[in-house]
Design brief:
Helix content of chain A: over 70%
Mean pLDDT of chain B: 89
Strand order of the largest sheet of chain B: 8-9-10-1-11-20-12
Number of strands of chain B: 24
Strand content of chain B: 15-25%
Largest sheet of chain B: 7 strands, mixed
Radius of gyration of chain B: 24 Å
CATH topology of chain A: MetI-like fold
Shape of chain B: globular
Oligomer: heterodimer
Shape of chain A: elongated
Number of strands of chain A: 0
Helix content of chain B: 25-40%
CATH topology of the largest domain in chain B: D-Maltodextrin-Binding Protein, domain 2
Structural class of chain A: mainly alpha
Distance between the termini of chain A: 21 Å
Distance between the termini of chain B: 13 Å
Number of helices of chain A: 10
Structural class of chain B: alpha+beta
CATH architecture of the largest domain in chain B: 3-Layer(aba) Sandwich
Mean pLDDT of chain A: 87
CATH class of the largest domain in chain B: Alpha Beta
Number of domains of chain B: 2
Low-confidence stretches of chain B: 1-38
CATH superfamily of the largest domain in chain B: Periplasmic binding protein-like II
Low-confidence stretches of chain A: none
Strand content of chain A: under 5%
Order of helices and strands of chain A: HHHHHHHHHH
Largest sheet of chain A: none
Chain lengths: ~260, ~550
C-alpha cells in the first residue's frame, strides 16, 4: 500500500515537474470534431467537450493542482506555525489572546473561511491558494501550540534553562527540531486535504480560470455532461482522489513510524 | 373535475392527483400524448412543476429591470395590450382594437369591457396610463420596457375604455414593443403599494396569480378563477391547472434528471446533450422556441483599443473559427447564424461571406495595424502592449456549451496572436464589468420583438445607460449614419422602405465587424409528454401554461 502510494506520488510529481515527458501533447489544443470521444487507443482517457485529450490535460493538470495544494499547506503551516509558536512560547496574556483569536477562526468551517477570503480578494489561482492556506491555518496553529507547550515543559528544555542557554539557542536547538518532526507528518497529511479543497474552489469557479488544465476546473466543466459522457468527470475526479489518498497514506505511514521510533 | 383537493396538504394532493391520473387515463384511453395539441378533452386541476435554469428574478414585476427570467414567469400572471400571431401580426389581447393617427404620432387603444385584475381593480384607460408612466418613471429602474417606450411622450385617457399614446415620432415597432411581457399591464392599485411589495406579489389579469415566493426555492402560482381574457389566438377555455410550482434548479444535469424521473414536468434551458438524450425517451417532448430580436453574438467593444481599429476587429472575426465547435457542442440543436437578428425575424439579413475564416488575411490585417509578433508565446503586441482581449462571461446567461465555445474562440484566435482572457463572472459582477467598460468582447443576449432591437443595441444613444444602469450598445458603435438609418426605419410607414432601411443598417453593423453572430438565442424546453397544450408565445417565445393541462 505504502509502496503503491509512493510510486503513484512519484508519477504525479513527475507529471507536475515534467508533464511533457509523460504527455507530449498540448493540453489546450482543441479539435472540435473529435469532441466527446470515449477512452480509446488514440485517446487513452477520451476527449472532452472541445476535443482536447483528457490524458494530456490530467497530466498537465498535476502541476497546478499539486502546486496549489502544496503552497496552500505551506501558507497554512507557516501562518499556523507562527501563531502557534507565539502562543506556545509567549507569556500567558499573549497565549490567551492568540488562542482566543484562533478559536474565533475555528468557529468558521474551513471552506467558509476560504470563500470569505475569495469574496474579499476576488477569484483566481493565487487567491484560492492563499484562501485554502488561511482556512487551514487555525488547525495548524492549535497543533503547533500544543507541541510547543509540551516541548517547552520537557525536562531537556528545563535543563537548558538551568544551564543558562539563551532563548534563541533553546528555540533553535531544542524546540524547533522536536516540533518539526511532527509538523513534517502534518504537512504530508495536509497536502492531500489542500488538494481537495483547492479542487473544490476551482470546481465552484473560484480558482483557476478556464480552459486551464486543473483537476477541479475540469471536473466542473464536465459535470454538465455527467449523464452522457462519464469520462469527463470520472478521470479528473480519480486524479484528485488518488493524489489526496496517496499523500495521506504516506503521511499516516510517516506518522506511525515517528511514533514507534 | 370537482375541486375537492385540499390545497394546504400538498402530499395528500399529490397522491390524490395520481389517482386522478389513473382515472383520467382510463377515461381517455390511450392518448398518443406526443403532440402539444391533443384531441382529447382537457382535464381541469393538478399541479405542474416547472424547473427553471434561469437566474431567479430579484423582482417579479418585469417593469423593474426587465430580463428574460422575469418574462418567463410573468407570462403566467401578466398580460399585455396586444399579442402577435405566429406570422408576427399584432392581434388583440387586453386591447380589443387600435388605430394610429394619420401622421403616426398617436395611437388609440380600445380596451375589452369588464376585465378586472385579480385584486378586483378594473382594467381601464387610467390603468394603462399608470402602467406606462410606471415604466417610464426613472425611479422604477426599468431598462427593457423603458427603452421600448422611448418615443412615447404622454398617455391620454380619452374615455374609460379608450387610451391614447402620443409619440415624439412615428414608431413602426410600437405594437411589437407593447406585446412584450416587460410592458405587461399590472393593477394600478398593486403598483401603488410601492416597489418592494409589488416586486414580491405583482397583480395582473393573467391565467395565474402569484401566491407565494419562497426565495431560492420556488414561486407558487395559482389559477385565476375569474380569468376572462387571453390573446385572440388562445385555444380552449383554460386555465386548467390549479397550481404551477416554479422551481429554481440552476444545475442543468440535476434539472434533466428531475424531468427524466418525473419529479418535475417542464424544464427550460435544456442542454444540447440532454435534448439529444431525451429524443430516445418517449415520456419527454421538446419545444424549440428561438427567441426573437438579436441573435446570440459576440460584440466587439469599438469604444477602446484594440477593437477601436476596424482591421483588428476584422482579424478577430476572420480567425474565430466556431462552426465545428457549434456542430460538436450543440449536437445539431443549434444552427450557425450569420445575422445580427434572430432567424425568426423576417427582416434579418444573413451574410455568411463576411465571416469566412481566413487566418492569412487576419495575420496581414494585424501586421498592417501595427501589432507585431515578437514574443515567444506568439501573442502580438504594439508599443509594448500585448494584444489582450478581456472577455467577461456571464455564467448565468451563457450555458456550459457556450462557455466551451468561447474557449474554442480563445484557442483559434490565439493562432493569429490574440490573447483572449475569459473571465467567468456571476451576473452582478458581469454587469459591473460592463458598466466600468472593463471588457473588449461580450456576449449579451437581448430579446425584443422585431428589428427595432437594432436601434436599442446599436444606436449611439445606447451607450448612455438606462435608469437601471444597463446600457445596451455594448459594441459602442457611434455612427451618425447608422443612427439616422435606424431612426428612419423606425419611423417608416411603408413596409418595403422599412425593410430596405433595416438591411442597410445591418450592412453597417456586420460589414464593419462590430459583431460575430453565433446562433439564435437558444430556447429549448423539455416536458413530460403528459403535459398537454403547452405552447410558446409568438411574442418573445416564453412558454404559456394558460392552455395547458395534465393528461394523467
Amino acid at each position: 500500500m505504502v509502496a503503491t502510494s509512493a510510486a503513484l506520488l512519484l508519477f504525479l510529481l513527475t507529471a507536475a515537474v515534467l508533464p511533457g515527458l509523460l504527455a507530449p501533447g498540448n493540453p489546450l489544443a482543441i479539435a472540435p470534431l473529435e469532441a466527446f470521444q470515449p477512452p480509446s487507443a488514440a485517446h487513452l482517457l477520451g476527449t472532452d467537450e472541445s476535443g482536447r485529450d483528457l490524458y494530456t490535460r490530467i497530466i498537465h493538470g498535476a502541476g497546478p493542482s499539486l502546486l496549489i495544494g502544496a503552497f496552500a499547506t505551506v501558507i497554512g503551516l507557516g501562518l499556523g506555525g507562527v501563531l502557534g509558536a507565539i502562543a506556545g512560547l509567549g507569556p500567558h496574556w499573549v497565549d490567551a489572546g492568540t488562542t482566543r483569536f484562533v478559536e474565533v477562526l475555528f468557529a468558521f468551517p474551513g471552506l467558509l473561511l476560504a470563500l470569505l477570503f475569495i469574496v474579499i480578494a476576488g477569484p483566481g489561482p493565487l487567491t484560492s491558494t492563499v484562501a485554502v492556506g488561511l482556512a487551514t491555518a487555525p488547525g495548524y496553529a492549535r497543533l503547533v501550540r500544543t507541541q510547543v507547550l509540551a516541548v517547552r515543559r520537557s525536562a531537556y528544555v528545563e535543563s537548558a534553562i538551568v544551564l543558562g542557554r539563551g532563548w534563541w539557542r533553546r528555540l533553535v536547538r531544542h524546540i524547533a527540531p522536536n516540533v518539526g518532526g511532527t509538523l513534517f507528518v502534518l504537512v504530508t497529511l495536509g497536502i492531500g486535504q489542500s488538494i481537495v479543497w483547492a479542487s473544490a474552489l476551482s470546481y465552484l469557479g473560484l480558482g483557476v480560470s478556464p480552459p486551464a488544465a486543473e483537476w477541479g476546473a475540469m471536473l466542473s466543466a464536465g459535470r454538465t455532461y455527467v449523464g452522457s459522457f462519464w469520462w469527463l468527470t470520472f478521470f479528473p475526479g480519480l486524479a484528485i482522489v488518488l493524489s489526496a489518498a496517496s499523500t495521506t497514506l504516506l503521511g499516516r505511514h510517516l506518522q506511525q513510524r515517528t511514533r514507534s521510533s | 373535475m370537482p375541486q375537492f383537493l385540499p390545497l394546504s396538504a400538498p402530499v395528500r394532493a399529490a397522491s390524490a392527483l395520481s389517482m386522478i391520473a389513473v382515472g383520467a387515463l382510463v377515461l381517455t384511453g390511450c392518448t398518443s400524448g406526443a403532440t402539444t395539441t391533443s384531441s382529447s378533452e382537457p382535464v381541469t386541476g393538478g399541479t405542474l412543476i416547472y424547473a427553471t435554469g434561469d437566474a431567479e428574478p430579484t423582482c417579479l414585476d418585469p417593469h423593474v429591470g426587465g430580463n428574460y427570467p422575469q418574462a418567463l414567469v410573468a407570462t403566467q400572471y401578466l398580460e399585455s395590450l396586444v399579442s402577435l400571431d405566429t406570422d408576427g401580426t399584432p392581434i388583440p389581447w387586453l386591447a380589443a382594437e387600435w388605430t394610429p393617427a394619420d401622421d403616426g404620432l398617436s395611437w388609440e387603444f380600445t380596451l375589452h369591457d369588464g376585465v378586472t385584475f385579480t385584486d378586483g381593480t378594473a382594467l381601464d384607460a387610467a390603468a394603462i396610463k399608470t402602467n406606462i408612466e410606471h415604466i417610464q418613471d426613472p425611479a422604477t429602474g426599468s431598462s427593457t420596457g423603458y427603452l421600448a417606450l422611448q418615443k412615447v411622450t404622454s398617455v391620454d385617457v380619452v374615455s374609460p375604455e379608450v387610451v391614447r399614446l402620443v409619440l415624439s415620432s412615428p414608431d413602426s415597432g410600437l405594437l411589437e414593443s407593447l406585446s412584450q411581457p416587460w410592458l405587461a399591464i399590472e393593477s394600478p392599485t398593486a403598483l401603488a403599494r410601492g416597489t418592494d411589495i409589488n416586486c414580491e406579489s405583482p397583480v395582473g389579469t393573467g391565467p395565474f396569480m402569484v401566491t407565494a415566493w419562497d426565495r431560492q426555492n420556488s414561486i407558487t402560482l395559482e389559477r385565476n378563477p375569474d380569468f376572462t381574457t387571453g390573446p385572440a389566438d388562445a385555444a380552449g377555455d383554460g386555465p386548467y391547472l390549479d397550481t404551477i410550482v416554479w422551481r429554481f434548479v440552476p444545475d442543468s444535469a440535476t434539472r434533466y434528471a428531475a424531468l427524466a424521473s418525473g419529479e418535475v414536468d417542464v424544464i427550460d434551458n435544456a442542454q444540447p446533450d440532454a435534448i439529444v438524450a431525451s429524443r430516445s425517451d418517449d415520456a419527454i417532448e421538446e419545444l424549440d422556441a428561438p427567441r426573437p430580436g438579436a441573435s446570440n453574438r459576440l460584440e466587439l467593444n469599438s469604444g477602446k483599443a484594440p477593437f477601436d481599429d476596424e482591421r483588428v476587429r476584422e482579424a478577430f472575426i476572420r480567425s474565430a473559427d466556431i462552426n465545428d465547435g457549434i456542430t460538436s457542442l450543440f449536437f445539431g440543436t443549434a444552427e450557425r447564424s450569420y445575422s445580427v437578428l434572430s432567424s425568426v425575424e423576417p427582416l434579418g439579413t444573413s451574410t455568411p461571406d463576411l465571416f469566412t475564416i481566413d487566418t492569412d488575411a487576419a495575420n496581414t490585417l494585424l501586421d498592417e495595424a501595427g501589432w507585431t509578433r515578437d514574443s515567444a508565446d506568439g501573442i502580438r503586441s504594439k508599443d509594448g502592449v500585448p494584444l489582450t482581449v478581456r472577455f467577461p462571461v456571464s455564467t448565468n446567461q451563457s450555458i456550459p456549451a457556450e462557455q466551451s465555445l468561447f474557449e474554442q474562440i480563445q484557442a483559434t484566435t490565439r493562432a493569429v496572436g490574440f490573447d483572449v482572457q475569459l473571465e467567468p463572472l456571476d451576473l452582478s459582477s458581469w454587469y459591473g464589468a460592463l458598466g466600468e467598460n472593463q471588457y473588449d468582447l461580450v456576449s449579451a443576449p437581448y430579446t425584443k420583438v422585431g428589428p427595432d432591437v437594432l436601434r436599442i443595441l446599436f444606436d449611439s444613444s445606447g451607450i448612455t445607460p438606462a435608469p437601471s444602469g444597463y446600457f445596451a450598445n455594448h459594441s459602442q458603435i457611434n455612427d451618425p449614419a447608422l443612427d439616422l438609418l435606424l431612426e428612419q426605419a423606425s419611423a417608416a410607414p411603408d413596409a418595403t422602405e422599412r425593410a430596405s432601411l433595416y438591411a442597410d443598417a445591418q450592412k453597417i453593423i456586420v460589414g464593419r465587424y462590430f459583431v460575430l453572430p453565433l446562433y439564435d438565442q437558444q430556447n429549448h424546453f423539455l416536458f413530460r409528454s403528459d403535459v398537454q397544450g403547452l405552447r410558446a408565445m409568438p411574442t418573445v417565445s416564453t412558454p404559456t401554461f394558460a392552455e395547458s393541462w395534465l393528461d394523467r
